[in-house]
Design brief:
Blueprint (H helix, E strand, L loop, with lengths): L8 H11 L16 E3 L2 E3 L3 E3 L15 H12 L4 E8 L11 E2 L5 H19 L4 E7 L20 H4 L12 H20 L4 E4 L6 H5 L13 H4 L1 H13 L5 E7 L23 H12 L4 E5 L7 H4 L13 H18 L4 E3 L10 H10 L6 E3 L2 H4 L3 H8 L13 H7 L11 H13 L2
Parallel strand pairs: 3-4, 3-11, 4-5, 4-6, 6-7, 7-8, 8-9, 9-10
Antiparallel strand pairs: 1-2
Length: 439
C-alpha cells in the first residue's frame, strides 16, 4: 500500500490510472463554494466537517474546555455544515465517561457552544454554518464508566469469536422502544438548544447500525428489512413529528458493513463481501418519502475494518487493498445511491486520504450528481480551516494536510482525548505523555 496521502494532484492522477479506480477529477472546484438549500435553511457552501468525537466532555455530558476549543476552530474554518459529534441519548449508551450527553439539566451548555460557533463563523467568514447534532446510543461500544458495558442487538462471531457476550446484554424490544424515545427527546432538546438539525446516528456498528443486520433476531426489531430498520425509521418519524418544520432531521447511515451475510448490512446474500445496494436503496427511498432531504453516507466499521470507511496511509494492520481502492468503493457507491435517489441530498465520506486531490475529486462527483456535499473527517482535526483555504484558493495547503497516520485513533482507542498529534501542538504533547506512560 502507499505510505502517504497525495501531496500533489499529479501523483493522484498517476495512481488513479494505474489502479483503474476511475475516480473523476475536475480542475474547476468552484462548485464547492455554492450554497445549497435544505428545507428552509441554507448551507453556505458544499463542504462538511464530519462528526469526530473528542471524548472530552464533562462527567455530566456537557462540552468542556477542549470541546469548546475544537468547535470554535471548526466554526472559524469556513465549512458550510458542521456535524456536531456523537451525543448520547442515555447514560448507559455513552461510549466513554466523557462522551457528550444532552439533558434538560445541561442544555444551556450546548446552547452556548452553538451560539459561540455562529459568532466565530460570522466574524471569520461572514457566514453561519448549519450545525447538526448527532444523537447516538453506542450499543456494543458502550463504556459509560470506562469499562466495557456492551448493549448489543445480537451476538456477532466476527467480534466475539468463541466467547459470545452474555445474553443478558442483548437489548430487548422494550428497551429499544425506550431508546427510540430517547433519540426523539434528544432531537427535541437539540432544536431547543439552537441546533439546525439532528442526526439519528445509524453507522459504524453502534446500536442503530447493528440492528440493520439483525437478520436472525426475533421480535419487532429483527428479521425482515422493515423490522431491522424500525428503530431508525420510527426515531426519524418521531423527530420530524416533535420538532419544528424548519428543523433538519437526518441520519449518518452505514450503507455497507463489509462483512459477509448474515453478519453485515449492504452485502450480497450470495456470499462474499461485495457491496449490494438493494436494501440501502430501499431504506433511502423510505427516508425520502418521510420527508428526509439530507443523508450523510458512510461504510465499514472503524473498530474492525477501518480501511473500508477511512482508508489510511499508516494504521494498526496492513489492509487487504490499496487505500485508493477503498476511497473508490466509497465514492462510487455513494454516487450510485445518489443517482438512484434523486430526491435526497447526500454527503460523501472517505475524502481525507486523497489529500491535495480531494477538492478536485469531490467537485467532479458533485457536478455529475454523485453527491451534494463533500464530507471531511480526520482532516478537520489536522486542518480545521481546510474549507476556508479551498474557498479562497481552490486548493488545500500541502503543509496542513492530514497524513492519515491513525495516531488520533490510537489516542482514542487508549482512552485519551483524540486530536492531530502531527499538526496540533496541544495533542503532540498529549501523545508524547501517553507514549511515555506506556514505557
Amino acid at each position: 500500500m502507499a505510505n502517504q496521502v497525495y501531496k500533489n494532484v499529479l501523483d493522484f492522477k498517476n495512481e488513479n490510472e494505474a489502479l483503474g479506480t476511475k475516480l473523476p477529477f475536475s480542475e474547476d472546484v468552484s462548485v464547492l463554494s455554492e450554497s445549497v438549500q435544505i428545507g428552509s435553511r441554507i448551507a453556505p457552501n458544499r463542504l462538511v466537517c464530519q462528526a469526530m468525537e473528542g471524548c472530552d466532555g464533562t462527567s455530566d455530558g456537557s462540552p468542556d474546555e477542549l470541546t469548546i476549543r475544537r468547535y470554535h476552530r471548526l466554526a472559524e474554518g469556513g465549512a458550510g455544515i458542521i456535524w456536531f459529534e456523537a451525543t448520547a441519548v442515555c447514560p448507559e449508551g455513552r461510549a466513554n465517561p466523557r462522551q457528550l450527553w444532552m439533558t434538560d439539566s445541561n442544555i444551556d451548555s450546548f446552547k452556548k457552544i452553538a451560539d459561540e460557533m455562529r459568532e466565530k463563523a460570522l466574524k471569520s467568514t461572514g457566514k453561519e454554518p448549519l450545525i447538526i447534532l448527532q444523537a447516538t446510543h453506542s450499543g456494543r461500544y458502550s463504556k459509560p464508566e470506562g469499562t466495557p458495558a456492551p448493549i448489543i442487538a445480537y451476538n456477532n462471531p466476527l467480534f466475539e469469536g468463541a466467547n459470545p457476550i452474555d445474553k443478558s446484554r442483548i437489548v430487548t424490544d422494550e428497551q429499544l422502544d425506550r431508546i427510540g424515545e430517547g433519540l426523539v427527546n434528544t432531537s427535541r432538546l437539540a432544536e431547543k438548544a439552537g441546533f439546525d438539525g439532528v442526526d439519528i446516528k445509524c453507522c459504524h456498528r453502534y446500536l442503530n447500525s447493528e440492528l440493520l443486520s439483525a437478520y436472525e433476531r426475533e421480535g419487532r426489531y429483527g428479521g425482515s428489512l422493515e423490522n431491522r430498520t424500525r428503530l431508525l425509521r420510527e426515531s426519524v418519524a418521531g423527530a420530524i413529528a416533535n420538532c419544528g418544520k424548519d428543523f433538519i432531521v437526518t441520519t449518518r447511515l452505514n450503507v455497507y458493513d463489509g462483512f459477509e451475510y448474515p453478519l453485515g448490512f449492504g452485502v450480497s446474500k450470495n456470499g462474499g463481501t461485495d457491496f449490494d445496494p438493494t436494501e440501502p436503496m430501499w431504506l433511502l427511498a423510505q427516508l425520502a418519502d418521510m420527508g428526509v432531504e439530507l443523508v450523510n453516507i458512510t461504510m465499514g466499521n472503524p473498530y474492525f475494518n477501518p480501511h473500508v470507511n477511512r482508508p489510511y496511509a499508516q494504521g494498526g494492520y496492513e489492509p487487504p487493498e490499496h487505500p485508493l481502492q477503498g476511497v473508490a468503493r466509497m465514492l462510487h457507491g455513494i454516487s450510485d445511491l445518489a443517482h438512484a435517489n434523486p430526491k435526497l441530498k447526500l454527503i460523501s465520506s472517505g475524502l481525507s486520504y486523497l489529500g491535495a486531490a480531494a477538492p478536485g475529486v469531490a467537485s467532479a462527483f458533485i457536478k455529475d450528481g454523485g453527491f451534494e456535499f463533500a464530507g471531511f473527517g480526520r482532516t478537520i482535526l489536522a486542518y480545521p480551516d481546510f474549507a476556508k483555504d479551498i474557498l479562497a484558493s481552490s486548493e488545500l495547503n500541502a503543509k496542513k494536510l492530514c497524513i492519515c497516520c491513525s495516531k488520533c485513533t490510537e489516542l482514542m482507542r487508549n482512552a485519551h482525548t483524540p486530536g492531530c498529534v502531527v499538526r496540533d501542538k496541544l495533542y503532540t504533547e498529549l501523545y508524547k505523555s501517553y507514549k511515555e506512560s506506556k514505557k
